[in-house]
Specification:
mainly alpha; disordered N terminus; about 300 residues
Length: about 300
């Protein structure tokens, strides 16, 4: 009898330990966080959800809340319904200290919903928010990217980008170079090339790290408009700042476009070093071939 009772007790204890209701075992938010982090490190994303959610309920610390919300993205991505992933993304976007984190989270959210075939859910959610004047900054921020990169409605992208800029101008939130660049891209997609060129130049003035990239984009727009003086001025400014070095691919595209513009401006000598640098910064055969063809034209023109 004693053996049977002992076995029964062991089974009951095992069940309690394995139970999803074991949140009560965490005495502090840090303890719950550590349990979630351990599950995350082991690759058991699903198991990390419960302790992270327990930690969230137990903390009032804003920094820890942000860390928990970021960590929960991995497990929420696995859920059959996207609601928690969307709500979690919203928290991060609305509370992120840096624009880069907001932008990366927005991209992750839209990519996730695109893969799930539910971009219409996002569009409907934030359109309704705007109609009822709820979460306006967040809603315009999401929709300007949705229409700019996914649903490809440049006029609507411009509308939401301008609305976001207007809403944030007095709130201490600076419209970043990336937002200005997005607006430039949206103007270009809408065929408003002069507006695009000017917005790219505004973006270049806003952040020296990406200035040469946006000046290159501005020069491209001016060339398409046939305004060679403006294009040359933008190219020369970009050249003085040096190539975009955030990645080999961006470096390739920067040199390639600068070289192509110089070639169009009948300045083959200036084009040659850029086209050579473009070739050196890519391993994609199609890109290499295109640059080699342009380089051959430039070298022939110099002779």
């Amino acid at each position: 009898m004693f053996v049977r009772c002992g076995l029964l007790t062991c089974l009951l204890l095992t069940a309690l330990i394995a139970s999803p209701c074991a949140a009560a075992e965490y005495q502090t938010a840090v303890e719950a966080w550590n349990a979630g982090a351990a599950a995350l490190r082991s690759g058991n994303y699903a198991a990390s959800q419960e302790p992270f959610e327990a930690a969230l309920k137990m903390t009032d610390d804003d920094r820890m809340k942000m860390r928990i919300h970021e960590a929960l993205m991995a497990s929420y991505r696995l859920l059959p319904e996207p609601d928690k992933f969307v709500d979690n993304s919203e928290f991060i976007i609305e509370n992120a200290e840096y624009d880069a984190k907001k932008s990366l989270t927005r991209s992750a959210l839209l990519s996730f919903m695109f893969q799930r075939g539910k971009l219409n859910v996002i569009e409907d959610r934030y359109t309704k928010n705007i109609a009822s004047k709820k979460k306006l900054e967040l809603s315009h921020y999401i929709l300007m990217e949705l229409y700019g990169r996914y649903n490809r409605k440049p006029e609507l992208a411009i509308t939401h980008t301008k609305a976001y800029a207007e809403l944030t101008k007095d709130s201490g939130v600076k419209v970043s170079a990336s937002h200005l660049g997005d607006l430039g891209r949206q103007f270009a997609q809408a065929g408003k090339l002069e507006d695009a060129a000017k917005k790219y130049e505004e973006a270049a003035e806003s952040d020296e790290k990406t200035a040469s990239w946006y000046l290159k984009e501005s020069a491209d727009c001016w060339m398409k408009l046939g305004k060679e003086d403006e294009a040359l001025a933008a190219v020369e400014k970009a050249e003085k700042l040096g190539p975009d070095t955030r990645s080999d691919q961006l470096t390739h595209f920067w040199h390639r476009k600068i070289g192509e513009i110089y070639l169009e401006l009948d300045k083959p000598k200036e084009a040659i070093p850029h086209l050579k640098a473009a070739i050196e910064n890519t391993k994609i055969e199609g890109y290499i071939k295109s640059c080699q063809e342009a380089l051959a034209k430039a070298e022939a023109a110099v002779k």
